[in-house]
Design a protein that fits this description.
The structure is a single chain. The chain has two domains: about 150 residues, Aspartate Aminotransferase, domain 1 (Alpha-Beta Complex), CATH 3.90.1150.10; about 280 residues, Type I PLP-dependent aspartate aminotransferase-like (Major domain) (Aspartate Aminotransferase, domain 2, 3-Layer(aba) Sandwich). Helix content is about 40%, strand content about 15%. It contains 17 helices and 17 strands. The strands form five sheets. A four-stranded mixed β-sheet has the order 1-2-3-15. Strands 6-5-9-10 form a four-stranded parallel β-sheet, with helices on both faces. Helix 5 packs parallel to helix 14, helix 10 runs parallel beside helix 11 and helix 16 crosses helix 17. The protein starts with a helix and ends in a 14-residue tail after the last helix. The structure holds pyridoxal-5'-phosphate. The site of pyridoxal-5'-phosphate has 18 residues, from helix 6.
Length: about 475
C-alpha cells in the first residue's frame, strides 16, 4: 500500500490514542515502517533519531534479535496459558524470580498485568484490600499529585492528576485526592514574589502532603502514589529535599508508599529502579514499559513483604486478575530483556557514563536564548522554553512547544513537548556519538523555533499526555 492509501484508511477507521481525531484526519499520520538501534524510519524514507524510546519503553533499542528469538521459541513451546486455577508456566515463574532479585530486598512478590494502567488498577484494589484485612476499612483514600500520570483506565485516570483527562468521561473513582507536584521551574521558583530555593520548595510540597493527610484524617488515608521523576508530566525531577521529607511524612502516619516505576524502572535513572536512586522503600511498585523494552505488552506490581504477607496469610482468594496476567510469550521476552540489560551492563553504563555525559551536553543548551532550564537525570531530560525577551514562560496558547516539536521531527529527531517543556527519554543503548547527534538536532530545532517565533502560529492545540 502507498503512503496516501494507508493514510486514507487510517483516517477512515483508526481512532488513535490521545489524539484529536478530526485534526489528525486533516493532517494525515506519519507512518513508521521499521526501526533499528535508536532510529526509526517513516514511509517517506526519513530516518529519525528516536529521542523518546518509542513511548519511554524501548530501553534496549530496536531490532534486538535475541528478543525476537525469545518470542518465537516461546510461541512454539506454549503460546498461551493462564495462571488462574492453580496452574503456572516456566516463563512467568522465572520472570517473577528475576524481578524480585533485581528489586529492593523487601519486595519478594509480583502480580502480573498487561500494562501500566492495569498495574495501577491492581494497586488501588490491593491497598484498599490490605487495610481492610488489617481491620482498618476506613483507610481508603489514596493521595496522588497534580499532573501525575498513572495510566488511562478509569482507575489510572483517577489516580493520575491530569486535568484534561479528569475533565472527560467522569465521574472518577471516589476517595482519591491530589496534592501539588514538586515542579520547581513551573510552580516553585518564586514564593510571594521572591526567588525561592529548590529545597525550600521541595519541603513545602511535602508539607502540603502532610496538610492533606490531616485534612482527610490519617485514619482514612491508605496510600500515597507517585512517580520518582514525573515522566508524562514533563520530566519533572523533584528537588533533593522532596523525597526524604515525603518519606518522613508517610512514616509518621503509617501510610503505604506506592512508587510508580513504569518509566523510571529498568535503568532510566541509572539504577534498576527510581526507588533505588532516591532510596525509597516502596510497599508497592507498578512496572511496565521498559520491562519488555516495549517489544510486547506486559506490566505488573511488585509487592513488598508487609502487604504480600497480609494478602497471602489473611486474605483468602483475591478476586482479581487478567486473561493475560503473566502471558508466557510476553514473560519470555521480558525475561530475555532483563538478562540482556544485566549481561550488557546497561544500567551501570547509564549511571556512570551516558547519564553524566548527557547531563553535561544537555545543560549546555541553557545558553540558548529560548531555554530557561535544562535538566536531566540518567537518560531522562527536559528543556523549559522561555521568551528570550523576558526570560519568562510563554503564553501556552502560542503553542511554542508544539512548534519546536514539529521542527525537531522535520530535522530528524523525535523529541516530545508537554506544553512548552521539551522532553527526551532515549533508548538506554544510545551511544555518546548518538547523544552528540541528538544534541545537535535539538540545538538546530531550537534555532529554527527562535527564527519562526515572529510568524503566526496555527494549529497548536494537539497535545499528547501519555
Ligand atoms: C505509561 C505510564 C503508565 C500507564 O502504562 P500503560 O502501559 O500505558 O497502561 C502508568 N504510569 C506511568 C508513570 C506511565 O508513564
Amino acid at each position: 500500500m502507498t503512503t496516501p492509501e494507508l493514510q486514507r484508511l487510517d483516517r477512515a477507521h483508526y481512532l488513535h490514542p490521545f489524539t484529536d481525531f478530526k485534526s489528525l484526519g486533516e493532517e494525515g499520520s506519519r507512518i513508521i515502517e521499521r526501526a533499528e538501534g535508536v532510529y526509526i524510519h517513516d514511509s517517506d524514507g526519513n530516518r529519525l533519531l528516536d529521542g523518546m524510546a518509542g513511548l519511554w519503553c524501548v530501553n534496549l533499542g530496536y531490532g534486538r534479535e535475541e528478543l525476537v528469538a525469545a518470542a518465537t521459541e516461546q510461541m512454539r513451546q506454549l503460546p498461551y496459558y493462564n495462571s488462574f486455577f492453580k496452574t503456572t508456566h516456566p516463563p512467568a515463574v522465572r520472570l517473577a524470580e528475576r524481578l524480585c532479585r533485581l528489586a529492593p530486598a523487601h519486595l519478594n512478590h509480583v502480580f502480573f498485568t498487561g500494562s501500566g494502567s492495569e498495574a495501577n488498577d491492581t494497586v488501588l484494589r490491593m491497598v484498599r484490600r490490605y487495610w481492610a484485612l488489617k481491620g482498618r476499612p476506613d483507610k481508603q483514600w489514596v493521595i496522588s499529585r497534580e499532573n501525575a500520570y498513572h495510566g488511562s483506565t478509569v482507575a489510572g485516570v483517577s489516580l493520575g492528576g491530569m486535568a484534561p483527562m479528569h475533565a472527560q468521561g467522569g465521574p472518577l473513582v471516589p476517595k482519591i485526592a491530589h496534592v501539588r507536584q514538586p515542579y520547581w521551574f513551573g510552580e516553585g521558583r518564586f514564593k510571594e514574589g521572591r526567588p525561592q530555593h529548590r529545597d525550600a520548595f521541595g519541603r513545602d510540597c511535602a508539607a502540603a502532603l502532610e496538610a492533606k493527610i490531616l485534612e482527610l484524617g490519617e485514619e482514612n488515608v491508605a496510600a500515597f502514589i507517585a512517580e520518582p521523576v514525573q515522566g508524562a508530566g514533563g520530566a519533572i525531577i523533584p528537588p533533593e529535599s522532596y523525597w526524604p521529607a515525603v518519606k518522613a511524612v508517610l512514616e509518621k502516619y503509617d501510610i503505604l508508599l506506592v512508587v510508580d516505576e513504569v518509566i523510571c524502572g529498568f535503568g532510566r535513572l541509572g539504577e534498576w529502579f527510581g526507588s533505588v536512586h532516591y532510596d525509597l522503600a516502596p510497599d508497592l511498585m507498578p512496572i511496565a514499559k521498559g520491562l519488555s523494552s516495549g517489544y510486547l505488552p506486559i506490566g505488573g506490581v511488585l509487592v513488598g513483604d508487609r502487604v504480600a504477607e497480609t494478602l497471602i496469610d489473611e486474605g483468602g482468594e483475591f478476586f482479581h486478575g487478567f486473561t493475560y496476567s503473566g502471558h508466557p510469550v510476553c514473560a519470555a521476552v521480558a525475561l530475555k530483556n532483563l538478562e540482556l540489560l544485566e549481561a550488557e551492563g546497561v544500567v551501570d553504563r547509564v549511571r556512570n557514563d551516558l547519564g553524566p555525559y548527557l547531563a553535561g551536553r544537555w545543560k549546555a543548551l541553557e545558553a540558548h536564548p529560548l531555554v530557561g532550564e535544562a535538566r536531566s537525570l540518567g537518560l531522562i531530560g527536559a528543556l523549559e522554553l522561555v521568551d528570550p525577551a523576558s526570560g519568562e514562560r510563554f503564553d501556552e496558547s502560542l503553542g511554542v512547544g508544539t512548534l519546536c516539536r514539529d521542527l525537531c521531527f522535520a530535522g530528524g529527531l523525535v523529541m516530545r513537548s508537554v506544553g512548552d517543556t521539551m522532553i527526551i527519554s532515549p533508548p538506554l543503548v544510545i551511544t555518546r556519538a548518538e547523544i552528540d547527534e541528538l544534541i545537535e538536532k535539538a540545538q538546530a530545532a531550537l534555532d529554527d523555533t527562535l527564527a519562526r517565533l515572529g510568524d503566526p502560529i496555527t494549529d497548536n492545540q494537539e497535545e499528547s499526555l501519555s
